[in-house]
Amino acid sequence: MKNLIVVLVVTLSVLSCKNEAKQTVDNEHENHVTTLEKEETPKKKILSPHTSAMAMIDDAHIHIDYSSPGVRGRIIFGGLVGYDNVWQAGAHNATWIETNKDLVINGEVLPKGKYGFFTIPSKGDWTVMINKNWDQHGKDEYEEKDDVIRFKVTPKISEDIQEQLEYKVVKTSENSGLISMNWEKIKIEFPFTIN
């Protein structure tokens, strides 16, 4: 009988120790999870968010896709973006424009399709280029021979600063519209019609 009591006491002691060990592991796991949750850092703000501008004009869908950098206290044109150099008219990858209908821009036909949108900023008139090569990083693969349309525009200068680069496609009549790009103190725009 004494042996039976000793075996019962030993068995209960072992079970009690196992239960305490399991609770310790469970508590450590809960603490570990809580610590990880507390250490998560907020997501970093994207400095040049990917965005787009689009419009339906008659049965034409015009879509502009770009990354939108901010001024952030910098001199943009003649500084960050040098004068008289090709610029991808946005950040990161080349800005592109897509249309499901032929457009007439500056008296020339832009066939329906997808195109790179580039500019050459200057102190005077800017050059706008709509180029066959839309899928490229920046202006790395830009070649003038791939321009489908190339024309000059006179920029509008504002006293107010447009912090983020912004494109707009605006309907001006049943079959025409206006494309604009606005950043820092500069705005360029040009009309188009549906062919």
From TrEMBL:
InterPro entries cross-referenced by the UniProt entry: DUF2911
Taxonomy, superkingdom: Bacteria
Protein name, as recorded: DUF2911 family protein
Native source species: Winogradskyella pacifica
Taxonomic lineage of the native organism: Bacteria, Pseudomonadati, Bacteroidota, Flavobacteriia, Flavobacteriales
